[in-house]
Amino acid sequence: MKTITTTQELATFCEQARQHDYVTVDTEFLRERTYYSKLCLVQLAYDGNGTDDAVLVDPLAGDLDLAPLYDLFRDTSVVKVFHAARQDLEIFWFDAQVFPDPLFDTQVAAMVCGFGEQVGYETLVRKIAKESLDKSSRFTDWSRRPLSAAQQKYALADVTHLRTIYEFLRDELDRTRRSRWVAEELEVLTTPETYNIEPDQAWRRVKTRTTSAKFLGHLKELAAFRERFAQDRNVPRNRVFKDDALVELASTKPQSMEDLGKSRLLLREARKGDIAAGILEAVQRAGSIAPDALPRPPANKDQLQVNPALADLLRVLVKAKSDQFNVAQKLIATSAELDAIAAGKRDIAALKGWRREVFGDDAMRLCDGEVGMAVKGQKVVLVSL
Prior knowledge:
Blueprint: E1 2-4, H1 7-17, E2 22-30, E3 38-46, E4 54-57, H2 67-74, E5 79-82, H3 86-96, E6 103-105, H4 106-112, H5 121-129, H6 149-176, H7 179-186, H8 213-233, H9 237-240, H10 243-252, H11 257-261, H12 273-287, H13 308-325, H14 329-332, H15 335-342, H16 353-367, E7 371-376, E8 379-384
Parallel strand pairs: 1-4, 2-5, 5-6
Antiparallel strand pairs: 2-3, 3-4, 7-8
Helix pairs in contact: 1-2, 4-6, 5-6, 8-10, 8-12, 13-15, 13-16
């Protein structure tokens, strides 16, 4: 197996890949000690039978620039194939503000083709490629060099079997005329907003049962400080302070270093220096927010006026549609979306695009009392009322 360590070698491989319809891509990275993922390895393969049609690319090699790979990503004549691409795309977006185009994600395609919810790569290798994977190197430190032969073999398998999986799913999507469904699903993966975390919105990721506007104002300012601090220093946000400490600070509203010392949950490192100063400044800012500018909690299930009987009927309907079209149920509509529909909400993903054709139109007819449901043999069918 070949490992590319220079820009020229990468450029040569990418030029060869351009002669093919697709290239499979995977990455190995570390994120335990940083805010942004540290790219440690890129695996690439195109359709071929030679010894150089699958390679490892070492971005840690001092003489290697990934520019040729990014040029290949921009080449719309070559499909870029990933499995569960989100974290890979995040790395490439932050490194070079580039998304692979066109993109194919075999996890999404497998859900559309009836392989279940969030199907793993190992499952597809077993079911489609009829092979097994050696997972002994799964939890390895990919930043350490040299890589062992077992590590290299493990990494390369993530793109070699992917060729067989892609070709199978591509043909199945063509047969069922569902390629458009996958394309709609992948739009969110190639949108910068998917990856750009705005500090002022970071509070929405924190779980809390408190809905007081003043509390949420402090939560917002403290979460924004933590996010900016973590981004600027490239450290995990939980290394600054954890969510439970964040909620505690929003409740206690410390005004001094002495107050910070009384915190039960704040790490020792956060009670001094730049973090402590940032916490106190965030609390002061929160205290100055005008009442009409305080954040409001997002509506949850308990706040929605859900018709429980209708919600139950919608769950039966989405299960029936999942069986009928052999599509993963949660891909059609999540439980939260079904509750929202039953509460009268209509700006819902399950009511748009291919989902509307499969589920949404009938869901609206059910909500409007135009149809009911009946059991016919082993199937649930719609009947006009």
